[in-house]
TrEMBL record:
InterPro entries: Glyas_Bleomycin-R_OHBP_Dase, Glyas_Fos-R_dOase_dom, VOC_core. SUPFAM superfamilies: Glyoxalase/Bleomycin resistance protein/Dihydroxybiphenyl dioxygenase (SSF54593). Gene3D superfamilies: 2,3-Dihydroxybiphenyl 1,2-Dioxygenase, domain 1. It comes from Gluconacetobacter sacchari DSM 12717. Residues 3-135 form the VOC domain. It holds the Pfam family Glyoxalase. It comes from the Bacteria. CDD domains: VOC_like. This is Glyoxalase/bleomycin resistance protein.
Length: 145
């Protein structure tokens, strides 16, 4: 059984979050108040909470770093959704059309290996890193190398 996840995270500007998640990514907006907004991110509930706090590296989270994956440094922490390939390609094009810079351009990693996947990274206006992935076959999601 698949269950949607819930993730709440900090942002410093709700209007920028509303534009990015609603207009750029196309997430339907759910409930909101003057300090938070929830969105439907591909069937999952994400909630942007205005905190006004920024870390020294410019994000609103509790610190940032990176980890090595397939010869690339990826931002830590990050979150996102695993999509089917057609939805992933459509999202990559949508992000490009809105002029959002990629931290990692859309590409295929682990070519020829069991975990082969399409991936892309970009940040929201508050500096939260997002990764969206796709597999040609979802049964490869947890495949071991």
């Amino acid at each position: 059984m698949s269950a949607p996840f819930h993730l709440a995270f900090p942002v410093d500007d709700l209007d920028a979050a509303r534009h990015f998640y609603g207009e750029v990514l196309g997430c339907p907006e759910g409930r909101s108040s003057d300090s938070w907004i929830d969105f439907d991110l591909f069937g999952n509930q994400i909630v942007t909470h205005r905190t006004g706090l920024r870390d020294p590296q410019g994000g609103t989270g509790g610190g940032t770093g990176s980890g090595a994956v397939d010869g690339h440094n990826v931002p830590i922490p990050h979150f996102g959704v695993v999509l089917d390939m057609a939805s992933w390609e459509a999202l990559a094009e949508r992000v490009r059309r809105h002029g959002i810079p990629f931290g990692m351009e859309p590409q295929v990693r682990f070519k020829g290996l069991p975990g082969e996947q399409a991936t892309m990274f970009f940040c929201d206006p508050a500096g939260n890193a997002l990764e969206f992935k796709a597999f040609r076959s979802m049964d490869r999601l947890f495949a071991k190398q």
